Amino acid sequence: MASSIENNNEKLTLKSSDGEEFLVEKHVALQSTLLQNMLDSDCSSADVIPLPKIDARTLALVLGYCKKHADASSSKQGELNSFDSEFLKDMDMGALFNLVLAANFMEIKGLLDIAAQKIADTIKDKPHQEVREIFHVENDYTPEEEAAVREENRWAFEGFP
Amino acid sequence: MIQEVDGDDNGHIDSDKVLENLKEAFSLNQDQFQDQNLLWIPPNCGSAPLHWLLTADGGLRRLPTRFTLLKSLTFHTMMFSDVVVISCTLLLIQSCPNLTKLNIRFCPTMNTFEEPVVNYLEAPACMDQRMKTGLRLLRIDFNSGLRSCSRKVASSFFCEIKFSFTSMFRSTMARSRFGRKDIISDLPRNIVESILERMPVRDAARTSILSSKWRYFWTTISQLVLDDQFFQETVRIQPIVQLELAKAVEKILLLRSGPIQKFVLCLPVLPFNGRSDIDHWLLFLSRNGIKDFTLDNSINTPYEMHSCVYSCRELTRLKLINCIVKLPRELSGFQNVVELHFTRVAFGNNMLRTLLSRSGLLQKLSITVCSGIGHLIINAPNLRELVIICNSETDSLSFVNTAELRVCMIAMFKKTASLGGKTPSLVEFLAGLPRVSDLFLDSFFLEVRRCLILDLVHL
């Protein structure tokens, strides 16, 4: 097991929901407020920290993000920004949602911000029918209710079909 | 109900019956169907009716008829997420020998299995046999991108081929495990809020129509930005009378549930003088725990701030542009303010000094092109950034307790009458800024204490 090979304070092991283990440098893990709190509260870093809600593929992405941000010095803000914008670029919605849930769970604010922004950008300027399709939201309004909602926010729907 | 349609042994079938079934399967209305030139498959038609096209083991059933009249075929917002949709698409394309236009628009966000469809279209067999004679326009929009597509294949057969790739799909992301599940409505509320806060208010409000769950999601967002874009859109869309505009803002506020932490109001470029409306909004905000408030009144005559703002105990950040600030009858707030930005603000009698004296936590202060400053004493133990630019009616300026100041910018940009009174000498001034890392002064400021510069030499 990875943790037994390099069992020192500078690394810790994270375990994904599907059982894969990731050996992570401590300063990378500290990007996550959740992990930071766990370490602060004297969680031995020799232990394997289970992350039961995050699958291996998502965790790998999350850790990639954390590593980039932990390693970049503050003077490279421009580089980080372009990394951020590339990071989510071609991601499909399923992966993006996994990521936003993981960022929320692990309390990684920067990642949560960019993922939420990406989803927001997907929704805005689109007709609601299309948004429903993209996210598989089932329309449970009756035509009367739908008309009432429209009327309630009439200012927002003017000019939209 | 959809019936199975099978040809007889000779492959002969009742084409009317097929059309009837198709009509039902795709919920087409009569008009659409009579005009066979255009068969549009509505998105999200679901897999149930499509089953009709497949054999029991999921294989492709031969479509019993050819749609010889069909010229234009559009697949809209396609999500090729299962074999049924793919088979159906291919089957239909195969069955239309006289197509001249084929449009396939993939769903912009779900990367699924477009490949079989594209591969099929690229296959010479497909082109040779069926379509090369007629198809003149093949348009495939990969909004979400696809890793590769050999464009040369089809080019010999079509006059016009449009492939739009907005992005190329390079990574080897596994497929979504969400399938056709509603992937957004069940997100934790804080994430939904975070998403809604990251789009214009109008777009957020329009999510109310998605489903009953979404009806009031948007009303809990704690940040409202009613900026130029908001007002311009609202005005442009409905030739609005002022009343309507005010009504829209009021509706937004009234529907609110939960505190409004941030409110940005940029009054629009229109003859908008509903001062009492603004008063009402401010009153509402002040009672709903406003923390961060911006009022940009650049383009109108100065607005006199409603005094309720000075009683907001939760207020941490205030930014005012082109307003009048007068001493209120009651001043019970401001003790939590960390950021103050005043631009083109006319202060009443010693009002600025009074406000600052209450703001012990202040970290950032900017006073730009303001008037009525009077005797200004900066007594702010936590102040990090200070900008004082181009103000008029400044009687004196002195620094007490500014040891934490990092960024300091003081400029007059014009000759002013001397800063008299308790204005410190330059030496005293600099001595009061032990941690300053960024200092910006202009000659007019220095000029006032020209004779005192010499003091520096003797330090």
UniProtKB/TrEMBL annotation, chain A:
Residue ranges of domain SKP1 component dimerisation in the record: 109-156
UniProt pathway: Protein modification; protein ubiquitination
SMART domains registered for this protein in UniProt: Skp1
Residue span, SKP1 component POZ domain: 11-70
A biological-process GO annotation: protein ubiquitination
SUPFAM superfamilies: POZ domain, Skp1 dimerisation domain-like
InterPro entries: SKP1, SKP1-like, SKP1-like_dim_sf, SKP1/BTB/POZ_sf, Skp1_comp_dimer, Skp1_comp_POZ
Keywords: Ubl conjugation pathway
Matching Pfam families: Skp1 (PF01466), Skp1_POZ (PF03931)
Coiled-coil regions listed: none
Function: Involved in ubiquitination and subsequent proteasomal degradation of target proteins. Together with CUL1, RBX1 and a F-box protein, it forms a SCF E3 ubiquitin ligase complex. The functional specificity of this complex depends on the type of F-box protein. In the SCF complex, it serves as an adapter that links the F-box protein to CUL1.
Family: Belongs to the SKP1 family.
Subunit: Part of a SCF (SKP1-cullin-F-box) protein ligase complex.
Protein's name in the database: SKP1-like protein
UniProtKB/TrEMBL annotation, chain B:
PROSITE patterns membership: FBOX
F-box domain segment(s): 181-234
InterPro entries associated with the record: F-box-like_dom_sf, F-box_dom, LRR_dom_sf, LRR_FXL15/At3g58940/PEG3-like
Any Pfam family: F-box
Family annotation (SUPFAM superfamilies): F-box domain, RNI-like
Protein name in UniProt: F-box domain-containing protein
